Every structure is written in C-alpha cells, then in structure tokens.
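haha ok so turns out i had the wrong file open the whole time. this is the CORRECT one, sorry everyone. sequence first:
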Amino acid sequence: MFMTATPPDRCRLVLITPPDMAAGDIAARFAEAIAGGDVASVIVAAHGTDEVSLQVLAERIVPVAQAAGIAAIIDGDTRVAGRVGADGVHLEVGKEDLADAVERLQAKMIVGTGGATTRDAALELGEAQPDYVFFGRFGYDNKPEPHRRNLALATWWAEMVEVPCIVLAGADVESVAACAATGAEFVALSAAVFGSADAAAAVRRANAILKGDAPPPGAPA
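then structure:
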C-alpha cells in the first residue's frame, strides 16, 4: 500500500496531476513518467473542475497506476473514488469531517489530508489519524524551489508526529533534495514532471536524487 515505503530508508515519489492540461495529455504524460522509475502514488487532483471532468481523468489514470503497482488517490470526491475503484481519497476538510471520513473509509481505502498552513492546524488534522498529511497546495509548484513554509512544516512534522507526510517540491526536479532533507516520507512532483520535455527522465532524476546516488546538476553523464 501507499504508506509502506520501498526501500524503507528513503523518501519516495508522489505525482500530482496538473491543471490546464487535457485528460488525454495528462494520461499520456503519466504513462511516460512512470516508465522512469519508482512512484509510490498518484493524486488525481481536481483543480476546481467539476465531478464529471474529474471522473474522466480518473478513469484514464487509475487503471494505469494500479497496473504498475502505484496507489491512485482521488482529490476531494469520495463518490468518484468509489466509482473508479481508486485506492484512496485526499480530503482537505475540517477536523470533524476528516475524523468522520477516516472512521467510515479508512478500513477500505487510504484517507489523506492537507491544507494546513500552521502547526496548530496540522496537529488538529493529525488527531484524526489520516494516512498522511500533505504540505503544499496543488498547482502552486510554479517556482523552481519548494515553498519555505512547507519545508519548515514538514521538518517539524517529521520530527514530532508519526503520521507520514508528503511535501510539495518545486517546478525544478532538483528541489526534491530539499524536500527529502526534511525527513518527510514522501515528496510530491507535478510541474517538474508533467511540464517536462521528458517525463520519464524527470522521474529517473528524482529517484536518483532520493536514493542519494545522483551526480550534481550539469555533471557529465
């Protein structure tokens, strides 16, 4: 399942589907990306679209992900998650609604959350014992580096809380190094992969960095 890291001693990669791209193009880029190496999970992000559009995208992504042993998580819609047979759902809701979702759904699927921008808010979500807490905002990886607040929250969380966390990297694949340094179990990429001219190479590079055996940027191959 999603939260069991393989190998267990390093941060793993999560992909997040991007905004402003047709479902067919996202699906093609996703299939290319996962050919590049280890991916723990994909979050099919809604980005404000309607339920029908989210389901169309999910129907293209989920079977491909699951065939590759990658957990598929649907953003914000438990009905779509159920209809497409997804492995989990990502819910950015208040602590009471999250606790209810965990109680109802966690026995049969991953229940993750995000949206916290302070330590107190993160701890409130963590009290519900979700499968993960995400630091960042989908679609906001438009700068090369990760957001400093996300890195700070992930560092604190990884030191203090047992619930795994995912931290959003930047638009430059090299930024996964800073995310992994927080101690987070997972690092998320979106623009750095789906916006790359070679999605497989981006995933390959990210994994090399996460494994600690990547040459420096610009070094001879």
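Residues 3-8 have pLDDT under 50 and may be disordered.
again sry for the mixup
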